[in-house]
Design goal:
Radius of gyration: 58 Å
Order of helices and strands: HHHHHEEEEEEEEEEEEEHE
Helix content: 55-70%
Strand content: 5-15%
Oligomer: single chain
CATH architecture of the domain at 55-250: Orthogonal Bundle
Mean pLDDT: 77
Shape: rod-shaped
Structural class: alpha+beta
Distance between the termini: 148 Å
CATH class of the domain at 55-250: Mainly Alpha
Largest sheet: 9 strands, mixed
CATH topology of the domain at 55-250: Helix Hairpins
Length: 463
């Protein structure tokens, strides 16, 4: 009996050609999956579009900004003109104050002279009247005793020794020399009377001049005050227009920024679309290359041979790597600062000092030793210090914010006497500095620049 032997397994092993076909199929599937993934996965998502202002909105915002800028330019011109006029009124007011103080000083001097001459006239009249009374009394006594009495008889007819002594003294008084004295007294009385009349007339004249100067000063101060109000009003208008300009600029920047943001979004969108198209193109090329490679591998598989056994064969080349797209002084100056207004004629008036611009609180110094003649409130200056120096000159420091000395105090060269301010009629922080000669507090002003230069002091600026 023949025994029949069955195989251990009923499954037929895969031939080499079958394994190769399986690999090709897998490669085609991988290529297709890669193409799908690359095509549907963007580099990053494009954000939603921002609002896009219309051309009319941009044009309107630009026109509003230009109109606001034009208004600011116009009001800036008006403000510059108003500030210039205020500076002129300040000079006029300072000049009027100077003239008023000088007239006031002359009036005080005239009043003192009138008082002195009146006192001298009263004294001279008293002396003349006393002498005249003595003569009258003597004449009356002579008449009662007899007008033809000689001097000896006058003495002998005295009733007692006291009367004798009195008559002898009077006879000596009315001698030739005493009569000359009486005549001189009368001449002096007439001279003093004339002087008193002249002084009284001068006092009246000085009073009229002082009144006129006071009126001019009041008018100048009123004009300055009106100018200051005008400047304040224009400044307020400019501040309002500046705010409007700023709002218009913000609005223009807003629409321009929105337009720029929209244009940037469009550019980003186009770039992303171009990148996606490039990725699709590359994926398609890679899929086509993979498909060609798979077909070439399939065509290279030998026809199946009879019988079992596996033949040898090489594995297919992997797909190519994806192509990467694009994308990869000798002396001490009055203060530190710059001169802004010089000594001399200005705007039809006269500026009797120099203005030195400096921040509020800047120290003020005296260039020479001397004594404080006045310190405190001063018309037009707000506050001022007057110093009479040892050489007879007077220096004035106006518009100061603080004063560190007092009237009558002795001061020395380089001493800090005050601080720069903006007091009184002033268009900005500065020191008004004057120099007077012959000890005159309110007159005889001279140019301070040469005076300081003689002390080796030179100020910055154009003066």
């Amino acid at each position: 009996m023949v025994a029949i032997r069955l195989p251990a397994s009923t499954k037929r092993p895969l031939a080499s050609s079958d394994r190769r076909r399986s690999r090709v199929t897998a490669l085609v599937l991988v290529a297709l999956l890669w193409t799908l993934l690359v095509a549907v996965t963007p580099a990053y998502a494009v954000p939603p579009p921002p609002p896009n202002p219309s051309d009319e909105q941009v044009t309107a915002a630009d026109a509003a900004e230009q109109a606001a800028a034009a208004e600011v330019g116009r009001i800036s011109g008006e403000l510059a003109a108003a500030e210039g006029e205020l500076a002129r009124l300040n000079i006029v007011s300072e000049a009027a104050t100077y003239e008023y103080l000088a007239a006031e000083g002359r009036l005080i001097a005239a009043q003192e002279a009138a008082v002195q001459s009146a006192a001298e006239l009263t004294e001279a009249q008293g002396e003349v009247e006393g002498a005249q009374s003595a003569i009258v009394e003597f004449a009356r006594g002579s008449y009662m005793s007899g007008s033809l009495l000689t001097n000896d008889m006058i003495l002998l007819t005295s009733n007692d020794p006291g009367e004798l002594i009195q008559r002898a003294a009077f006879l000596d008084y009315i001698s030739t020399g005493r009569m000359d004295v009486l005549n001189n007294l009368e001449v002096a009385r007439v001279t003093v009377a004339n002087t008193d009349s002249t002084n009284r007339a001068a006092e009246i004249e000085m009073a009229a001049a002082e009144k006129a100067a006071a009126q001019a000063k009041a008018a100048a101060e009123a004009a300055y005050a009106n100018g200051a109000v005008m400047v304040a009003q224009v400044q307020a208008q400019k501040a309002d227009l500046d705010a409007q300009l700023q709002a218009a600029q913000v609005a223009l920047l807003g629409v321009e920024g929105a337009r720029a943001a929209y244009e940037a979004w469009e550019a980003q969108k186009r770039a992303e679309e171009a990148a996606a198209a490039e990725r699709s193109r590359i994926a398609a090329e890679q899929a086509a290359a993979a498909e060609r490679a798979a077909r070439a591998a399939a065509a290279a598989v030998p026809p199946p041979s009879s019988g079992g056994g596996g033949g040898g064969g090489g594995s297919p080349a992997p797909p190519p790597a994806p192509v990467q797209g694009p994308g990869g002084s000798a002396g001490v100056a009055p203060t530190s600062g710059t001169t802004t207004s010089c000594f001399g004629a200005r705007w039809g008036s006269f500026h009797y000092g120099v203005d030195i611009a400096a921040p509020i609180g800047t120290p003020v110094y005296t260039p020479l030793s001397g004594r404080v003649s006045r310190a405190g409130a001063a018309s037009g200056f707000g506050q001022a210090v007057y110093i009479t120096h040892d050489n007879g000159n007077v220096t004035v420091y106006g518009h100061v914010s603080r004063i560190f000395v007092s009237t009558g105090q002795r001061v020395y060269e380089g001493q800090n006497i005050a601080a720069v301010g903006n007091e009184g009629q002033s268009t900005g922080p500065h020191l008004h500095f004057e120099v007077h000669t012959n000890g005159n507090l309110y007159g005889n002003a001279i140019d301070p620049i040469p005076w300081l230069a003689n002390l080796g002091i030179y100020l910055r600026g154009n003066c």
